[in-house]
Design goal:
Length: 258
């Protein structure tokens, strides 16, 4: 199976994993190990960058030699907030990579497209490598690609919903329209959702709640790893066409006549 390449950087895994909502830090670290991921995302607005009394910074627990860090702007509702948060992340974590999130409201957590496009344009001009979380809208994805984003990250379903890939046709159209990596972000609930997404031809999947919120996060992380590998291999192998009627798998030539 080929590796994932974003902005010229190669990753061995096509799974990007979040670091929040785990029962405890030990479970998080075990889940990261089981997932096989080498690219993980952290929320800069919720991140304890310096150890406080009795509280260990998550960044002190993560092996920066092993994992590439993708700070995200989760919790931002305006382009101004998102840009400032990304700049703080660059200074604190010494990376110009950012997963750009600009949310429209607390209820749906859908992206605010107008503010998202504005923030992406500003961050690109400021030298960031931008991976925007966006709606599963082919036009928005094409605009983000055309302006120079390193990848697009359309949602499969609302954040944390576990509803799976609600509109596979849009995901396929997005894949066909743009040349940069397409990473499904949000909505995956279980391994079959991940496999389906990969079979559509996307380049990778970002997930957090599906693993962290599972009854057994470490087992689910392993399941997601295997599902993404299987789905990608199936896509690269090329499935047979769907048919309404049966087609015999064994040749009829040479059969014994009654």
């Amino acid at each position: 199976m080929s590796n994932l390449i974003i902005a010229g950087k190669e990753f061995k895994s096509r799974l990007i994993v979040g670091t929040s909502r785990y029962p405890d830090p030990h479970t998080m670290l075990q889940s990261l190990e089981a997932s096989g991921a080498d690219f993980i995302t952290v929320s800069i607005r919720r991140l304890n960058l310096k150890s406080a009394s009795g509280q260990e910074s998550i960044m002190n627990m993560i092996d920066r030699e092993r994992y590439s860090i993708l700070p995200n702007t989760a919790g931002c509702f305006t382009a101004k907030e998102a840009v400032l948060t990304a700049q703080l992340a660059r200074e604190a974590l010494e990376t110009n990579w950012v997963k750009l999130e600009v949310i429209g409201d607390d209820e749906t957590l859908f992206p605010d497209v107008t503010e998202l496009l504005k923030a992406a344009e500003e961050l690109l001009a400021d030298g960031f490598i931008v991976l925007p979380y966006c709606n599963d809208d082919p036009i928005t994805c094409r605009k983000l690609a055309d302006m120079g984003c390193a990848a697009v990250m359309p949602l499969g379903a609302p954040i944390g919903s576990g509803m799976g890939i609600r509109n596979p046709y849009n995901i396929q159209i997005i894949r066909d329209l743009i040349d940069i990596p397409v990473i499904v972000d949000a909505g995956v609930g279980t391994a079959s959702d991940a496999a389906l997404a990969m079979e559509l031809g996307v380049d990778g999947i970002l997930m957090n709640t599906a693993i962290a919120g599972a009854e057994h996060p470490v087992k689910m992380a392993r399941a997601m790893k295997l599902a993404i590998e299987a789905g990608r291999l199936a896509f690269e192998a090329g499935r047979i066409p769907k048919r309404l009627y049966a087609k015999a798998s064994s040749p009829i030539e040479g059969m014994i006549n009654s």
